[in-house]
């Protein structure tokens, strides 16, 4: 029969295992969505590489397709997505480092809004 300390240790190890599994699932979901997005962007690049005439009078949205401006829009979208991924990675790294500090016995009051 296990004493209380051993039971607590087993529960804590099980909780850590569940958290690791949840983190792996979320990373897998994000990775697969990034791959799908990358494939879609490659398809858009292929469609923009063909000559497109943007001679539509009175429609300002057509100017994005004129003279290769669609490529610039695509690069802007890619840069935005990369910036979001970097930001999420930094936030995740910060939370993990704060969690490690609290696990080391140093209690730190962190306000997560």
End-to-end distance = 42 Å
Helical stretch count?
A: 2
What is the strand content?
under 5%
The main sheet comes to: none
* Shape, per Cα inertia axes: elongated
Extended strand count: 0
Q: In oligomeric terms, what are we looking at?
A: single chain
Tell me roughly what share of residues is in helical segments: over 70%
Question: In angstroms, what is the radius of gyration?
Answer: 24 Å
Q: Assign the structural class, choosing from mainly alpha, mainly beta, alpha/beta, alpha+beta, or little secondary structure.
A: mainly alpha
Rounded mean pLDDT score = 77
State the low-pLDDT regions, or none. Answer: none
Order of helices and strands: HH
Could you explain how this protein is built, in words?
This protein has two helices and no strands. Helix 1 runs antiparallel to helix 2 (69-103). It has 113 residues and is mainly α. The protein is elongated, with a radius of gyration of 24 Å. The chain is 71% helix and 0% strand. The longest helix is centred in the N-terminal third of the chain and has 45 residues, at 4-48. It starts with a helix and ends in a 10-residue tail after the last helix.
What labels describe this entry?
113 residues; mainly alpha; 2 helices; elongated
